[in-house]
């Protein structure tokens, strides 16, 4: 218990240092660099602290970061759900490549923290038999979405687009909230931690003009002199981490 308390303290210190680093403007801020500064240090620290099940972490990083992340990113910029201002590292002008690395790092850190603090043995669960079916289904849907983005770019409406495409983060969370509310309660500390991290990343991103929101949204949130859509608050800051854990718990590890 004492060791875990120390780990929590160090993760908190790393989070504070990351914020101070950017607030002092020591380095030119980019999306890629911001992701690395906020997410990579705790990943490295926790990796050395205790053995992790890297196969499952890689699976989650691939599914969330690539298979789900690629069409999500395409649709986001294509429908003006958000606008990323960096003109480098772009693919077909509407796809910002570093965002995929960001999804992968966020997903990986989520699972690393879950394994570290909630599992006595990271390999205690085998790979779920349901995973292959889910993997190929998501891959098929991803390919269809990407192809339609190229072939029929006007197919997807721009009005309230973020509200629609972000629903993917609500589905696993709501299912667990109804069927297994104790699980959501158990991972609340993780949700609070990532909310703090993602709010800081949002603040730094908006104040450094890395991205902006010029679409139509169901509402807006103003805090600390920044304004962003309600969808950003709900889908990313609050629901991303529990959705990753719900997916991991349902389709990657075998809980049967």
Could you please describe the fold and organization of this structure?
The chain is mainly alpha-helical and 256 residues long. It has one domain (2-252). 67% of the residues lie in helices and 5% in strands. The protein has 11 helices and 4 strands; from the N terminus they run H-H-H-E-H-H-H-H-H-H-E-E-E-H-H. Strands 1-2 form a two-stranded antiparallel sheet. Helix 3 (54-78) packs antiparallel against helix 4 (98-118) and helix 4 (98-118) packs across helix 11 (240-252).
Counting DSSP E segments of at least 2 residues, the number of strands comes to 4
N- to C-terminal separation? Answer: 28 Å
Order of strands, widest sheet: 1-2
Shape by Cα distribution: globular
Proportion of residues in helical segments: 55-70%
Strand content of the residues, in percent?
under 5%
Report on the biggest sheet: 2 strands, antiparallel
Give the overall pLDDT as a whole number: 89
The total number of structural domains is 1
| Poorly predicted runs | none
Radius of gyration: 18 Å
Number of helices in the DSSP assignment: 11
Order of helices and strands: HHHEHHHHHHEEEHH
Structural class computed from helices and strand pairing: mainly alpha
């Amino acid at each position: 218990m004492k060791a875990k308390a120390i780990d929590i303290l160090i993760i908190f210190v790393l989070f504070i240092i990351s914020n101070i680093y950017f607030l002092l403007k020591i380095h030119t801020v980019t999306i890629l660099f911001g992701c690395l500064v906020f997410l990579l240090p705790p990943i490295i620290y926790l990796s050395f602290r205790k053995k992790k099940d890297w196969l499952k972490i890689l699976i989650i990083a691939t599914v969330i970061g690539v298979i789900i992340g690629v069409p999500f990113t395409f649709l986001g910029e294509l429908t003006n759900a958000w606008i990323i201002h960096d003109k480098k590292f772009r693919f077909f002008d509407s796809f910002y490549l570093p965002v995929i690395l960001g999804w992968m790092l966020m997903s990986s850190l989520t699972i690393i923290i879950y394994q570290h603090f909630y599992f006595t043995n990271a390999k205690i669960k085998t790979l779920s038999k349901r995973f292959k079916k889910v993997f190929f289904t998501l891959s098929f849907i991803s390919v269809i979405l990407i192809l339609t983005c190229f072939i029929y770019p006007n197919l997807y409406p721009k009005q309230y687009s973020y509200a629609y495409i972000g629903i993917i983060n609500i589905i696993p969370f709501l299912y667990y909230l109804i069927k297994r509310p104790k699980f959501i309660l158990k991972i609340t500390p993780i949700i609070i931690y990532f909310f703090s991290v993602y709010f800081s990343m949002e603040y730094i991103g908006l104040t450094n003009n890395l991205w902006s929101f010029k679409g139509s949204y169901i509402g807006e949130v103003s805090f600390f002199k920044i304004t962003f859509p309600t969808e950003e608050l709900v889908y990313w800051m609050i629901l991303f981490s529990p959705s990753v854990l719900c997916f991991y718990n349902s389709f990657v590890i075998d809980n049967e």
